[in-house]
Amino acid sequence: MPATVVIGAQWGDEAKGKIVDYLAEDADLVIRYNGGNNAGHTVVLGSQVYKFHLVPCGILHPHATCIIADGEVIDPGVLANELDDLERRGISLDRLKVSMNCHIILPYHVAIDRLEEERKGRKALGTTVRGIGPAYADKASRTGIRVADFIDPKRFHDRLAENLKVKNAILNKIYGAEGFPLDAILAEYATYADRIRPFVDNTTYLIHDALKAGKKLLFEGAQGTMLDIDHGTYPFVTSSHVVAGGACLGTGIGPRDVDRVVAVAKAYTTRVGAGVFPTELSDATGDYIRERGQEYGTTTGRPRRCGWHDTVLLRYSAMVNSVTELAITLLDVLTGIDPIKVCRAYRCDGAETDRLPGDWEATSQCEPVYDELPGWTEDISGVTRFDDLPSNAKRYIRHIEKLAGIPVRFVSVGPSREQTIVI
Length: 423
Known about the structure:
Blueprint: E1 3-8, H1 16-23, E2 29-32, E3 41-45, E4 48-52, E5 65-68, E6 73-74, H2 76-88, E7 96-99, E8 103-104, H3 107-120, H4 132-140, H5 147-150, H6 153-173, H7 182-196, E9 200-201, H8 203-212, E10 217-220, H9 245-249, E11 260-266, E12 269-271, H10 284-292, E13 305-307, E14 309-310, H11 311-321, E15 325-329, E16 340-348, E17 351-353, H12 360-363, E18 367-373, H13 391-404, E19 408-412, E20 420-422
Parallel strand pairs: 1-10, 1-11, 2-5, 2-10, 5-7, 6-8, 7-9, 11-15, 14-16, 15-19
Antiparallel strand pairs: 3-4, 12-13, 16-17, 16-18, 19-20
Helix pairs in contact: 2-7, 3-4
């Protein structure tokens, strides 16, 4: 710090929430900069499990101001429920701020998302059907409704009425579905606006004032690099800028303000939804990893596809994010697997390469080239020092570090805050 960005190095679900929670102990501001309630961050504190979808997970630290920044899209009903749940559990929201520039997800976004996935059938992208993509599409087409509009009853009425003329026509004429009545949305969403209004602020100035004052800032990314709208496995990606540069775009800071980028990667690889996955395991080992790692989506509950760790992806993520250090999570899940494989390169058209092909369709034709390492059987969930890990577990981490060319600073051996080894 002063400004640290935490990003996912794979296809999301890397346990970023735990790493953000751990680093937030030393942060003054924790800022979520992209995505919406298609993302879920889980934090375990003792017997308590917290699942976040829109609120930065730094809210669990009473000293930290938490910001939902410009780059997020907000489903007001989801946010209102999340706020209510946190307050019921005794978490103070006094330090929460919501950017007036966030865009709002509305019922027609969710409906269009679902209907478009149904229309595509077997070619569906595998979205979370939360309306995220359609909301970002409206943002890009300059027809979106922002928080500043939403909390002003007249502006919200006028802009929603104008949008419904188009959205209801699309629902009726393209999908053969019913549209949405203006009055019903206004009545329901007025309650959400009242709930959110006290938290709304000009967060760009809050962030820059903190930087000028020498405060420590922690930027919390959602999803993973390979889901970035520009740099991921398009079209099987999310709709926002996931990479570390997204922290600048989604908050209003400049690149010079960031001096540390922590990339979070699992000790293996997972992804949800369709798309290329070179190291995927469709066998008993993949099933073992899924069940032992409880690889089911925080937001959707969908089972995740599982495979060996892929350092071709990791090096690419390190490059496009200017990564300074790695956090390897869920190492404990690999206990009992012998041997363990690590993808060090791809074989494409008969030639070995340590780079991703620029064409993602071509990547699906590549075969992973593996290094094979011995596994371990010892329970590592209680280990607190790197030197106390089994020798084969240490060898595995050092091998990933060598192939990635980036130092590993954190190793997670369990879900709780205390199960984090700092190297």
